[in-house]
């Protein structure tokens, strides 16, 4: 990951993180950010779950071919922003790549923080935006706020629908916050 990148992380890298990767890629394409995903315990080489593929195709119409990838220290250290689905995954990332502490958030946490950035603030890079978000972490803490999106893998269709809806809502808050505060790509 040589350009600025967002790394979305879940457990198996076949449900939640591929959905978030696809939604963020679609919404932030004009900003030239590289969006990738990985798993803390990835199902290496496996395609996304059929439910994830169906959700993304029903939402944005396309699901780029991708296979499950394992998160490791190198991948984590290269990402500009790391977004996990759960607090436990955030802890796992920080044990694996301690230097990523100021760049690692849960998806729900970052959605709240991104919304609290000053209305007209713009940033020359994703790195600058992430640095501005880090001190807002405490300000955006809400007692009892959920920071984790449950893993639907192997559960009911309703569990998939609820999990993917939470991912979609969070991405729907993150995309405009980043799109309008970062320069567009000349690529």
CATH topology: Rossmann fold
Beta-strand fraction estimate: 5-15%
CATH superfamily: Response regulator
CA distance, first residue to last residue: 16 Å
Query: What class would the helix/strand composition place it in?
Result: alpha/beta
Low-confidence spans: pLDDT under 50, at least 5 residues?
Answer: none
Count of individual beta strands: 4
> Strands across the major sheet, in which order?
2-1-3-4
| Helix percentage range | 40-55%
The helix/strand series, from N terminus to C terminus, equals: EHEHHEHEHHHH
* The level-1 CATH class: Alpha Beta
In total, the number of domains comes to: 1
Outline the biggest β-sheet. 4 strands, parallel
Average of per-residue pLDDT values: 91
Integer-rounded radius of gyration: 15 Å
Number of separate helices: 8
Question: What is the CATH architecture descriptor?
Answer: 3-Layer(aba) Sandwich
What is the 3D form? globular
InterPro entries: LMW_PTPase (IPR050438), Ptyr_pPase (IPR023485), Ptyr_pPase_sf (IPR036196)
Organism: Brachybacterium vulturis
Pfam families: LMWPc
Protein name: Phosphotyrosine protein phosphatase I domain-containing protein
Task: Describe this entry's structure for a reader.
By secondary structure, this protein is α/β, with parallel strands linked by helices. Helices cover 44% and strands 10% of the residues. The chain has one domain (5-179): Rossmann fold, CATH 3.40.50.2300. The protein has helices at residues 16-27, 50-60, 73-78, 87-96, 107-115, 126-133, 136-139, 157-179, and strands at residues 5-10, 34-39, 81-84, 104-106. Strands 2-1-3-4 form a four-stranded parallel β-sheet, with helices on both faces. The longest helix has 23 residues, at 157-179. The mean pLDDT is 91. This is Phosphotyrosine protein phosphatase I domain-containing protein. Residues 4-177 form the Phosphotyrosine protein phosphatase I domain.
């Amino acid at each position: 990951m040589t350009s600025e990148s967002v790394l979305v992380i879940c457990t198996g890298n076949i449900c939640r993180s591929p959905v978030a990767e696809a939604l963020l890629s679609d919404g932030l394409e004009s900003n030239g950010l590289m969006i990738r995903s990985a798993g803390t315990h990835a199902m290496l080489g496996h395609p996304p779950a059929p439910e994830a593929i169906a959700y993304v195709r029903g939402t944005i119409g396309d699901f780029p071919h991708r296979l499950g990838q394992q998160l490791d220290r190198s991948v984590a250290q290269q990402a500009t922003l790391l977004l996990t689905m759960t607090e436990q995954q955030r802890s796992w990332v920080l044990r694996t790549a301690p230097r990523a502490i100021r760049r690692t958030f849960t998806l729900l946490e970052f959605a709240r923080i991104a919304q609290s950035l000053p209305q007209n603030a713009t940033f020359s890079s994703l790195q600058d935006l992430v640095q501005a978000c880090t001190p807002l972490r405490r300000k955006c803490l809400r007692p009892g706020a959920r920071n984790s999106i449950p893993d639907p893998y192997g559960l009911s269709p309703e569990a998939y629908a609820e999990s993917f809806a939470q991912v979609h809502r969070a991405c729907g808050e993150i995309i405009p916050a980043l799109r309008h505060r970062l320069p567009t790509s000349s690529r």
